[in-house]
Design a protein that fits this description.
heterodimer, A: mainly alpha, 2 domains, about 85% helix, B: mainly alpha, about 0% strand
Amino acid sequence: MTDKSMTTIDQQQQYEQEKRKQEMKQQVITFALMIIFTIVAFGMVMAELPKLFVIPIMLILAAVQVGFQLYYFMHMSHKGHEMPSMMFYGGVFAAFLTILALVVLVWW
Amino acid sequence: MSTLVANEKKGFGSTIWDYLTTVDHKKIAILYLIAGGFFFLLGGLEALAIRVQLIKPMNDFVSAGFYNELITMHGTTMIFLAAMPLIFAFMNAVVPLQIGARDVAFPFLNSLGFWLFLFGGILLNVGWFTGGAADAGWTAYTPLSTTSPGHGVDYYVLGLQISGAGTLMGGINFLVTIINMRAPGMTYMRMPLFTWTAFVASALILFAFPALTVGLFLMMFDRMFDSVFFDAAMGGNSVIWQHLFWIFGHPEVYILILPAFGIFSEIIATFSKKRLFGYTAMVFATVLIGFLGFMVWAHHMFTVGMGPAANSIFAVATMAIAVPTGIKIFNWLFTLWGGNIQINTAMLWALGFIPSFTIGGMTGVMLAAASADYQYHDTYFVIAHFHYVIVGGVVFGLLAGTHYFWPKMFGTILDETLGKITFWLFFIGFHMTFFIQHFLGLMGMPRRYWVFLEGQGLDLGNLISSIGAFLMGIATIILLINVVKTSVKNEKVGADPWDARTLEWAIPSPPPFYNFKQLPLVRGLDPLWIEKTEGRKGMTPAEPLGDIHMPNNSFLPFIMSVGFFIAGLGFIYQKDNLAWLSAVFIGMGIALGCMLVRSLKDDLGYHIHKEDLQKEAKE
């Protein structure tokens, strides 16, 4: 084994370590954020703020949390997840249209 | 290892045990074929009873109540317990082979899916023996279904819930299999069209079945636990059931027809000795049909009173589906054009399908015209339309697939003469039965009525229709004789009896239990054909010979399904007597216990060693 290839392997390792460190940091941050979001949601309900304000905010917080979950904990941002994310967004799109049409048809 | 030796001759008992515990996709395919075939015969008998009742005016062959059960169970059985599993039979038998895989992604789940379907189907039919089967129509519209006395509809709800769970598992399994387990070189745009249609149908199953699950749960609570989701008097809304049912129900018809399209595409290309015309357009049309299929459900409900705006939107969306379907029809015709056409039984079904299905598609566009639909709604015109697409499309496809894939599944070719007799009898009988029903419908004969009056111009049409139904019955009996005759004769054929194009024909018929000794290298669309034109005998391997990892058989899926079956009975009868709740607990206990065992026990499978494979090759 030559020196040159040694250095490439070292570089590779270093790069991967760096990347893992980065990821760990992101995971910790998102985890903290998710806990904060949950506390905020509970807090809003306990503070008895007006419903019209609380419900949309809570839905938004929930949607962001789902995103965090998928991208930082289930690694959907990584390579090789194109098909799952396509199915996922396809499903969300179909479900959104269907539910929208259903709600409009039944209750409008 | 003696695993290869164990594959030799076995006693009857051990064969049964083998099938009860199997996780091999090829054996599960055979199980689906047998179970689906059985329910097909059952549904067919129900259809014959319906046609006997309608053979003459004011007939009293069956009572009105029993007639309701017959039509309900005919529809439910044919869609959920015959067509769906038969589609799954061919998907199981062929898709892993077509993409060059050794099995599906989740063999255990595959087996669980089958047993859940079977026990759900049995539960649906238990009602016949315990005071009446479901009688609210296969669509089970509320409030008719929620107020139907007795336990018939309860069997419908629980039976469909259990078998639906099995179907959902099957769908997910095939999605993962097709995405993850394609052989080296098998890109998406090199997949055979049957695999593509199975893929899109599986995606539809994944997105559509949850709507049915939700609807069935709501109905279960309405019927068994006194909730009022569908009770307008208590602030519920009975139309929601119709929406939920058709949000599922419309994609369901594409789940059925798309794989049939796939089978025809394989057959037409093989027996025209040409590659499929417009492959990319076919794939595009398949995906587009799958997508559009979700936004058309309300065309089943034009007369509900959704208003002109909603009706127009759904009418236009529905008519749009005629475009990709038309693309397909033309592509099949262009594949035939200039081809070296060989006409055998499988090809006859494919050729018979094209005009039959086109008629069904045409009446489909007629029905999609919302204003005209007020005239057709709930008449025999609708019956004629959907039998033209489901029998002329799906059943023809399944019968074509039976003849085409039989050598791959069993190693023998079904008798051609008997096959052709079956085709002609069935084809003529089918058109006799249903063509005349268009006109009966236009004359105003409503569907689901158990008698009609004399002298209203309906007598002759109904007589012709009933005679046609008997021709189809005779054709089916001849098909059964054909199956028995071929199995008894047991004349084995080679790996590639049709001189076909796709991967499944590159391995022996029936394939060894590990499918491919070495995974094949795919170099284009119709991979086997490419190798043949370049003078090679088989596929070029993509890997050296090595150990093959195989899953272990398991009896858990069977027990788990039995558990759900018992729990289902418990849910139905706890309405009469709370003591039946114990059956719920026992059944769910069995099912959950099996899940626990499955989760805690490591089952790593076994390896077929390289040396055994080499030894086998020498023999």
